[in-house]
């Protein structure tokens, strides 16, 4: 049995963690290169959409607290 077809083995949690660090803007080059080879692109896209929705929700909440 050959495992060559398993190049991208990561969990959704790992993708979410990588996206959150990217939003924060702090990432080591070593981790970035590891992410590029291991993360599932679909997981990264979904994690980015979830992260963006959370970010927008927090901004709306802050504005409502300050204005209201």
UniProtKB/TrEMBL annotation:
It comes from the Bacteria. The chain crosses the membrane at residues 42-67. InterPro entries: DUF2970. Keywords: Membrane, Transmembrane, Transmembrane helix. Pfam families: DUF2970 (PF11174). This is DUF2970 domain-containing protein. It comes from Paraburkholderia largidicola.
């Amino acid at each position: 049995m050959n495992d060559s077809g398993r190049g991208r083995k990561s969990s959704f949690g790992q993708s979410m963690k990588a996206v959150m660090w990217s939003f924060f803007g702090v990432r080591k080059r070593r981790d970035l290169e590891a992410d590029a080879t291991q993360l599932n692109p679909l997981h990264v896209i979904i994690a980015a959409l979830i992260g963006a929705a959370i970010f927008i929700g927090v901004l709306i909440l802050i504005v409502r607290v300050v204005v209201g």
